[in-house]
Amino acid sequence: MKISIVIPAFNEEKLIAETLREVATAARAIRERGWQHEVVVCDNNSTDQTAAIARAAGATVVFEPVNQIGRARNRGAAAASGDWLLFIDADSHPSPELFGDMLAAIEIGDCVAGGCTISMATDDWGARQVVKLWNLASRLTRSLAGSFIFCEARVFQELGGFNLDLYASEELELSKRLRQYARSHRKRIVVLHQHPLVTSARKLQLYSRRDYYRFLLRTAWARGRTLNSAKECHIWYDGRR
To answer: Beta-carbon neighbour count of residue 165 at 10 Å?
Structure first.
């Protein structure tokens, strides 16, 4: 069995090295099972040293010129050779225990995809409450956080990967299609919760609550059409790091 770890990265020179070190440590759980793994970083048209840092860390680096996270994930998946794909964000740190939980779920044999709850590295009370609400909703609805999604490669390819019409919430749209696939094939979608993924709180420093409220209101008013525009989804695409 082989796990391909796919990391989309746009101007991530500040964080990519630490993330790759954490991934390498977590991958101990893969090696202990006698499985193989690879790390594929998709340089999503970065203008900094992201690609060079990733190569120096031993990752396979591929390039995607169109700045869109779903497209970057799809490009990384296309270059991967694993039986299973694991998508991790460039600012997230998985643990060996979380990887072990994922491998155990795969080994059972009835799981087609999954994700995990998250823990945000912040003392902000409001942000922690939002994370708690998301984790609850994720577990109840089997909606997968984009920072950690694992999926059988064959199924990912059959479903066509991430939706390229979306510049945000593409993981929720994929989760919906995965749930439909799982129901029709009598498979499971799992959300692991014993060892949450630690993810960066940097966007809380880079953007104000007003920025988030404005985006949510515009998205609600436009009935989701803002998700089809990189300009409207500037929180993810304006390059602030």
So the answer is: 11
| CATH classification number, 2-202, choose in 3.100.10.10, 1.10.10.60, 3.90.1200.10, 3.90.550.10 | 3.90.550.10
Q: How far apart are CA 5 and CA 119, in angstroms?
A: 20
- DSSP-assigned beta bridge partners for residue 87: 6, 149
Q: At what angle do helices 96-108 and 16-26 cross, to 10 degrees?
A: 50
What is the pLDDT, as a whole number, of residue 70?
97
Query: Whole-structure pTM over 0.85, yes or no?
Result: yes
Cα separation values, 105 from 57, 189, 192, Å: 28, 10, 9
pLDDT mean for each 10 residues of the chain (241 residues): 97 96 97 97 96 97 97 98 98 97 96 96 87 96 97 98 97 98 97 96 85 91 93 88 82
pLDDT at 238: 87
